[in-house]
Amino acid sequence: MASSRREFLIVSGGTLAATALNLAHPSSLRANPLGKPIGLELYTVNAELDKDYEGTLKKIAEVGYTEIEAGVSPKHPAADAKKAFDAAGLKCHSIHIGMGGIEEAIPYAQAVGAKYVISSVTFPTQPAPGPDGKVDMKALFAQLSSFTLDDFKLIAARCNAMGKKAKDAGLQFGYHNHNFEFRVYDGVVAYDELLRSADPNLVKMEMDCFWTTFGGKDPVEYFHRYPGRFELLHIKDLKPGYKSTTGSFEGNPFAEVGKGTIDWKRIFGAAREGGLKHLYVEQDMWDRPPLECAQISITYLEKLDA
Known about the structure:
Blueprint lengths: L1 H10 L26 E4 L4 H6 L1 H10 L4 E5 L6 H11 L2 E7 L4 H11 L3 E4 L17 H6 L6 H20 L3 E5 L7 E2 L2 E2 H8 L5 E6 H6 L4 H7 L6 E4 L1 E2 L15 E2 L8 H11 L3 E4 L8 H14 L3
Parallel strand pairs: 1-2, 1-12, 2-3, 3-4, 4-5, 5-8, 8-9, 9-12
Antiparallel strand pairs: 6-7, 10-11
Helix pairs in contact: 3-4, 4-5, 7-8, 10-11
């Protein structure tokens, strides 16, 4: 998942562009939006994890995070990952599916104790590896700019199929959005088509509040229109000066939570109606060390009176 997410941001320049908790500050004394534990999407600190997996997990807990969203990692088999999560005092309720697909993700999620398996980027068909056994990520993400509404209908059908497999395994499938889902085809927003075509019981939405806002749409409007569909949220902020787009962008529009233009108090005020159960801070690009970014974000959220 981590490598594919990085490819998504780097390759898409032509298309999308792009425990050991601190005992002095026990988590039970921390304020949280809506009383929910604050989680961290591990992609935020992926480079640090590559250098020191166990140590970085402990640092995540030390700054106040109590939950994480992980990815299927060939470097860290599920049993080893679960042991490291437990040692750091972190709960993993959600994982993002890697390029191996739902069949690979289900046993990994079960082994680490997660309930949700989330597709971070979903294509109309399962990506096939080339002769070298690897998926051509550049070619794959180049497809995003040419998606049609029919492609999104196929994506919804795939989500329903993956959702059924997850449900049969005692798990819940979820769909994570970027900004390209908010393109309009003959008056139809692609994301609305996904919500219409996806079975609400089989497919829950992980609303990425940054990408939704960057795509020119309002997360709160979706919470009102589709109550109960959004059990997970990604929390990241949008720098001032960036105009909304469903396509390419230049530079780094990502900011720490509370440092950008998104009205988090308003979002959290409507999140219960949306169905919120878990929220994860995430930052895809950084102007300072990622762990520092993660600390800035949680410090803001702890002080936010939602």
